[in-house]
Amino acid sequence: MDVDNPSDFSDLQQEALQLTADMDTGTDLPRVGRNLTQILEAGQRLLAKVGPISQDATDVKASILLGSKGYNVPKISQKLEGLSASSTFEPLEPVRDTDIQGFLRNERENALLAVIEQTRQNTFSETERRHWECMENEWEREKQKILNALLGSGQDTIDFQPETESFLTDSISMHGRSALDNVEMAYSRQVYEYNEQVINSAYLKPNLVDMFYDVSRGLDNKHVQDLWEMIKCMIDIPPCTSGQSLRKNKNTQKAFVRNARTHLEQSYKKFITGQISGNLQQAQLGGVPGTCNLVRSYLNIRQAVLPRGLEDGSIDGHPTWAMIYYCLRCGDLNAARSVVQRAQHQLGDFPTFLQEYISNADHRLSPGSETKIQLQYRRVVKQCSDPYKRAVFCIIGQCDYSEDHVEIADKIDDYLWLKLCQTQIDTDDRSDVLTLQKLQSMMYEDFGEAHFNGYQQPFLYFQVLVLTAQFEAAIEFMSRIEILRCHAVHVALVLYQMKLLLCSNNRQAQLLSIDPSDQSPMRRINFARLIMMYTRKFEETDPREALQYFYFLRELKTNQNEDLFMTCVSELVRETKEYEMLLGKLHKDGTRKPGAIDKFQVDTQRIIDKVARDTESKGAFEDAVRLYDLGHKHDKVLELLNKLLSQVVSQTTSNQTNRDRLKSLALSVAERYRSSGVSENLKANTCSFYLILDLLSFFDLYHQGQTEEAMEIMRQLQLLPLSTDAVEHKVNTFRNYSEEVRRCLPDVLLATMNILHSQYKNARNTGVHSPLVRGRSDDGGKETYLNYLRNQSKALIMFSGMLPYRLPGDTYARLVQIEVLMN
């Protein structure tokens, strides 16, 4: 077929038309709706409608395409020209040996790449190490919180039933909203009074043990009262500067042994007095009041149970050595001396030994006399049948501490008293001498809880540990019993404020731990953990009371060398969210109303800052805003508010949403800062803050359908270009905005484009247009207004494509779709 002959095309067209006309409609071929002429005419009409493609449209589409990938079209050629070497850190290929300059350049570049790669690997390794270290520390803190919550949850951690008459208080009962029972509340009142006096008096401190003893007298519980009487007696020692003197200061150790003996002697004297009062007829009490007469009456009651084989005669019808022993047991050395003087013709050299024993302030014989009496004991007395004589010789002459004297020391009090009488402090670690350390090991490690039936008789085992100066182990044992924990905690408070408690240096250690520097069997107690474990039970319902206990931790530091009191207060505030009650509140004029923390006369500002930082680190930004505001950290307030508002600025308005709550908070802050002049000193975040507030107003009007008012706000803000001439200027200005404002841009662009589209449809369908074109003919003014809106949408499209900021992918697509609908 001849291509140059137009008649051939006409013939071809005629044949096609004939074939179309001759087609059988009953076949499976589809019916053609248009002939070739009609198709040609439709194509020509579409081509005329579209018109030639302009260079501007090409640039816009290219900008949109490359802008979605983060490229700027005007500068892309410059970037391409600036690209040279590979961006990886792989070593460069070696060059030929003859190219010296290239070889040196290559070696230099390889050395630099090796350093960069090594630094990168070290950075990753250090980051991973610190990450896991942080995770482990966080997990340790969470474990402590879980354990403290379990122990302080109000559930008995140890289930035991006393076999004898119950001496324990009833289980915890809730009084109103408080989680404290009546005993704990009584203790907390005394703690409050003590702290008040300590804070208000710089020199005179009240006697905390007397205050707790007054609580015990009102509880109608003899065991608790005896406990505090024992504590009062044990802490009556010479002043010491640290708990370490408990192990190193000989005078302190002597005082502990002496006080323990005194307590047991006083308790025994009360005991035999009670026995006599209950058996007056058999006791036949009479004569001159005194210990001798008291012992004689008591022996009248015990006459039938006295051991056989008593030696060296009798006095007033009772065995001489029994009279001496019970006088010593009651702690009356003068009474024992009077008995010895009455029977001295039967006792040999013993009166001389006793007189020397009494005359010595430490109640010790001289080395020579001690050697004589010990020799006499081994040769004669040890084989005698009188148990009282053997016991008296062991007490006076420090003889054979391994002897248990089971015939007369059948109670733990008697046994412990005998051992304390034989305990020596000024020794050179002789194997034949009972030291305080040996006695402690005997009671705690050799016998232990099982021997003393600790869970059924907790006060007895607590007494054994305290009287052997093992305060830490005693407190830890009693704290394991829920209904006795409050007594253990307050005993710890007394010992801690007197610096008699050995505390562990590691705040994450177990409640009772071993320090390598201490001698066995001494333990250290985690005092901070004990307090936090106790307060965990009631800190949510009684945060003021918890603060009083945390105040005892003010001199301690955490493992990160932070103030432990501040750390506990921070955690308490975050857990309870009682910001106003604990830290105070702000008035409208910006002044702070004091909170509960101000009563402790500490640096409240530091505590508020600490709580705010911890709250921010936990992700509670809204609470952190209020705390920073309370602490007058205005820059941080605006910084966090900008972050929070930028996330909700485009959301719709409804009651009780995060957006409304944050908006109300932001408006109150803005009003207060503006009236007080704070904003003038905070240029960095203030501009972004007020711009985001204006954007909130823009979106409020937008969601309410008030498009003209919303568009007017956008014009005043001058955030977006509304003409193609302003695009480049707005792109350059965009670099000055903060990240929070940039985050709002996609929603602002879409909302503005939707407003333009809404105005476009309204003008096209109804003929209503802007006053900008008023005064012209309807058709001319309408078309001018539509072109005006198209130019604005075109400027927004160009602006989005040229931004040096990556917008979400669907934002570009939606902008283009809306812009197409306006053409």
Major beta sheet summary: 2 strands, antiparallel
Helical percent range?
A: 55-70%
Q: Provide mean pLDDT, rounded.
A: 81
Shape: elongated
CA radius of gyration is 47 Å
Provide a count of the helices: 36
**Total beta-strand segments:** 8
Assess the beta-strand content as a share of residues.
under 5%
What distance lies between the first and last C-alpha atoms, to the nearest angstrom? 45 Å
The computed structural class is mainly alpha
Describe the structure.
The chain has 823 residues and is an all-alpha fold. Among the domains are: 182-194 and 204-236 and 453-536, no CATH class; 255-426, no CATH class; 654-717, no CATH class; 719-823, no CATH class. It has 36 helices and eight strands. The protein has a two-stranded antiparallel sheet. The chain has a two-stranded parallel sheet with strand order 3-4. A hairpin with a 2-residue loop joins β1 and β2 (318-319). α5 (100-151) packs across α23, α8 runs parallel beside α20 (458-467) and α31 packs antiparallel against α32 (707-717). The two termini are 45 Å apart. The model is unreliable at 83-87, 152-176 and 771-777 (pLDDT under 50).
Summarize the structure.
With 823 residues, this protein is mainly α.
What's the SSE blueprint?
Elements: H1 6-22, H2 36-50, H3 55-67, H4 73-82, H5 100-151, H6 182-200, H7 208-217, H8 222-234, H9 245-248, H10 250-278, H11 280-283, H12 291-302, E1 314-315, E2 318-319, H13 320-329, H14 333-342, H15 350-359, H16 367-379, H17 387-397, H18 412-422, E3 423-424, E4 434-435, H19 436-452, H20 458-467, H21 471-479, H22 485-497, E5 512-513, E6 524-525, H23 527-535, H24 543-550, H25 564-576, H26 579-583, E7 585-586, E8 592-593, H27 604-617, H28 621-630, H29 634-648, H30 658-676, H31 683-703, H32 707-717, H33 727-734, H34 739-766, H35 778-802, H36 809-821
Parallel strand pairs: 3-4
Antiparallel strand pairs: 1-2, 5-6, 7-8
